[in-house]
Design brief:
Blueprint: E1 8-13, E2 18-23, E3 39-44, H1 45-51, E4 60-63, H2 72-84, E5 92-97, H3 99-111, E6 117-122, H4 125-131, E7 136-141, E8 144-151, E9 156-159, H5 169-185, H6 188-196, H7 198-202, H8 206-226, H9 241-251, H10 255-273, H11 278-290, H12 301-313, E10 319-326, E11 329-335, H13 337-350
Parallel strand pairs: 2-9, 3-4, 3-5, 5-6, 6-9
Antiparallel strand pairs: 1-2, 7-8, 10-11
Bound molecules: glycine.
Length: 353
C-alpha cells in the first residue's frame, strides 16, 4: 500500500484575517475546508478538462487559461456569472488553478458585493510557492502587470502537488525559480537542498517537492506577516522581478524563466553595489544555469529597458531594487532607471551562456 501523503499546515496571520495554508492536501478532499453555505468554483479550461471529476459538487465558472485573460473584462464576465448563479454576500468563491486563477479569483471575491470569502486549490508549483500565498490579488491593465488589485488573504490555500503529474515540464521548472529566489534572499539551506537533490527535484519526487513547497510557504509567511502591505521588507520577494517582468513581456517567457534571467542581472549588480562575494555569486549563477530555467534567448536590450522604464514610471517613485549581500540575505538598494540601464548594458557584455 502507498504510504499516506504527508500533510503539513500553517496559519498566515494577516491584519484582517487568518489564512490557512495546507501543503500536501488533496483536491479530492477540498470539501473538508469549505464552509456549509453556497460555494462557486472558478477554474480554467485546462484544469477543468483534467480534474473536473475531482471537484467538489458546486457550480463552476470556467475561463480560458493564461496570463492574457487576467483583465478587467474577465472580472466583469465572472461577476455576471456569479449573479446568474445566484451568488450573494454569503457565497464562497473557490479558485482551482495556478497563479492566474488565484489572482483573478481573489480579486473578484474581494470586490464582488464589497467582498465575499474565498480560498484556493493551488495547482502549479509557481502558484503554490508564491502567487496563491500572501494575499496579493489582481489583474493587469494593458501592459501593466497587476496594476489593479487588493491585499486580501484567502481563507485557505490547498497545495496539492499530486496535480503536478499533469504539469508540463516547462511550467514545473518555471516554478523552481521562485524557490531559488527564497534561497537567495532568505534561506541559504534551501539551495543546499537544491544542490543535493537535483535529480529527485527533476523527477518531482513527492518527498522533496513537499519540502520545497513547505519551506517556501514558511518563508513567505514569515515575510508577509512582518509586512503584509509591502511597505518595506516584502519588497525582497521582488528579487529578480524588475528585469524579470520586462524580459517576460519582451521575450514571451514563462514567469519563472524570465525571473531566472532577472536574478542573474540582480546577482551581477549585487557584486557591484552590495559587495556580494564573487565566489557566492558564481555559486548562485551555477545553480540557476543548472536548473534548466534559461531558454537561451538573446536579450533585446532596448526593448527590455523600455518596458522596465515604463513599468517603473507608473509608480512615480524611486526604484527599490533588491540585491543580496550574501546568499540568504537580501538588501534594498534605492536607484534610478538610468543606473539600472547602465548595469544591464554591462551585464549583457559579459554574459557567457
Ligand atoms: N509575489 C510577491 C509577493 O507576494 O509579494
Amino acid at each position: 500500500m502507498e504510504p499516506a501523503p504527508k500533510i503539513q499546515e500553517l496559519e498566515l496571520e494577516g491584519k484582517k484575517s487568518l489564512s490557512r495554508v495546507v501543503v500536501g492536501g488533496s483536491l479530492r478532499n477540498t470539501g473538508e475546508y469549505l464552509p456549509e453555505y453556497q460555494v462557486i468554483i472558478l477554474t480554467d479550461e485546462n484544469v477543468y478538462d483534467l480534474y473536473a471529476p475531482d471537484f467538489p459538487a458546486f457550480p463552476v465558472i470556467v475561463i480560458k487559461p493564461g496570463e492574457s485573460v487576467k483583465t478587467l473584462a474577465t472580472v466583469e464576465f465572472i461577476y455576471t456569472e456569479l449573479v446568474k448563479c445566484g451568488a450573494d454576500r454569503s457565497t464562497f468563491l473557490l479558485g482551482i488553478g495556478g497563479g492566474v486563477i488565484c489572482d483573478i479569483a481573489g480579486f473578484v471575491a474581494s470586490t464582488f458585493m464589497r467582498g465575499i470569502e474565498f480560498g484556493f486549490v493551488s495547482t502549479t508549483l509557481l502558484s503554490q510557492v508564491d502567487a496563491s500565498v500572501g494575499g496579493k490579488n489582481g489583474v493587469n491593465l494593458g501592459n501593466f502587470k497587476n496594476l489593479i488589485g487588493v491585499f486580501n488573504q484567502p481563507s485557505f490555500v490547498l497545495c496539492d502537488y499530486e496535480l503536478f503529474k499533469t504539469l508540463p515540464e516547462r511550467e514545473y521548472i518555471s516554478g523552481l525559480a521562485e524557490v531559488i529566489k527564497y534561497g537567495l534572499i532568505r534561506e541559504a539551506s534551501l539551495l543546499e537542498l537544491f544542490a543535493s537533490k537535483t535529480e529527485d527535484i527533476r523527477q518531482r519526487k513527492e518527498e522533496v517537492v513537499h519540502d520545497l513547497v513547505w519551506q517556501s510557504v514558511n518563508i513567505k509567511k514569515e515575510v508577509v506577516e512582518k509586512d503584509e502591505f509591502e511597505g518595506g521588507l516584502r519588497r525582497i520577494l521582488n528579487f529578480g522581478h524588475t528585469f524579470g517582468h520586462a524580459i517576460e513581456k519582451v521575450h514571451g517567457l514563462l514567469h519563472g524563466e524570465a525571473v531566472a534571467y532577472g536574478m542573474l542581472v540582480a546577482l551581477y549588480i549585487s557584486g557591484r553595489e552590495a559587495n556580494l562575494d564573487p565566489v557566492e555569486s558564481e555559486r548562485a549563477k551555477s545553480l540557476i544555469l543548472a536548473s534548466g530555467l534559461l531558454r537561451k534567448i538573446k536579450p533585446d536590450k532596448n526593448q527590455i529597458i523600455d518596458v522596465m522604464k515604463k513599468d517603473k514610471k507608473k509608480s512615480g517613485e524611486k526604484i527599490h531594487f533588491i540585491l543580496i549581500d550574501t546568499i540568504g540575505h537580501a538588501v534594498e538598494w534605492e536607484t534610478t532607471p538610468e543606473k539600472l540601464e547602465n548595469f544591464f548594458s554591462d551585464w549583457l557584455k559579459q554574459i557567457d551562456f
